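Input chain follows. Return structure tokens only.
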Amino acid sequence: MDSAAQLETIAARWQGSFHNRRQVAATLARGGPEAPELTRELRTMAVERLQAPQLGAVVLYFQEFRASAPQLAHRQRVVVLRQDPDRGAVRAEQLFFRGGPTYDRPALAAAQVQTLGPEAFDRHPGCDLFFTAEPAFNRFRGRMDPGACRYRHPQDGEVCAEFEMLLHPDQLWYRDRSLRLADGSVRGEVDGFSWLLFDRLEGPLGDDLPALVRQQGVWRGSFRRYDAGGGLLETFPSTITIRVFQEGGRWQYHQSNLHGPEDAPLRRLEARGEIHSGRVWFASDRYQGWAMDLPGEQPAAGSLLVMHARDPGDPDIHEIISCSPDGRRRWRLSQLMKEGQLVGRTAIDEEKVSGD
């Protein structure tokens, strides 16, 4: 591949919408201590090509958002790609917005950015990336020159940044950290300078939320409760309604359960929560917990739920949900655990009666 073709390939691979949901789900499923914490947070990235000849022939604009602050662009950069014949590489010149903070900036539309002139940006040549091909892995590696990206921080003095990126056809990886030059200590780093993995998203972000989100609607079915030995205790009908909506830039979750024996008053249970970092986080009067996709299946064939009782006298609940391919039926199996012992099971068979 000649240098011009390499430049266009890098530009094409860098464009698009990306998310790190798969890495977040794997980190959460692995368990362990909270730190390093950043691969536990969902991040999304949008990269667009600008028609901005006043800046360069091939201009990209990217914004990266974190689930904890979805209204702010954690990273917001303009990148100009050009051939560097002296280096035998593609140079990615980073343009930093002037004014305001370097990170966590208000989001800007691409149409607005592509009208800006060179005076709207600061240039730090030492912070540019140089991309070279790695054909054996079908990827491009971009990195800063070692020790070249230096700047003065108002509190930490002179600082050196290190950044590296891998571009695959369907993935984008990067790692980032900064060091205090006075003593070589770490000023800031992304997850211990390990790699963040972003997968390319082909459809809208809402299509890539956890599987439980795609089960929104009204479900009717029957509950069968068993004791620890498998003896049937009771059977009763149920109606469950799942609602998903956006509010304040965040995905919200609301579930209503209406069930109980036919000869007794119906019981209503409400659970509410948020969707982020690849999971549904919810709470009710009696329980709080989370739901995630069953790992290893793409697309997800179902969900795993863990519910912790608020009252120490109540059991915790571990539940698996399996869905039919057409999304019209689902089967749930719950195990009730108390002080490390199985105290009962519940089997639920349901059919979706409405997607509204």
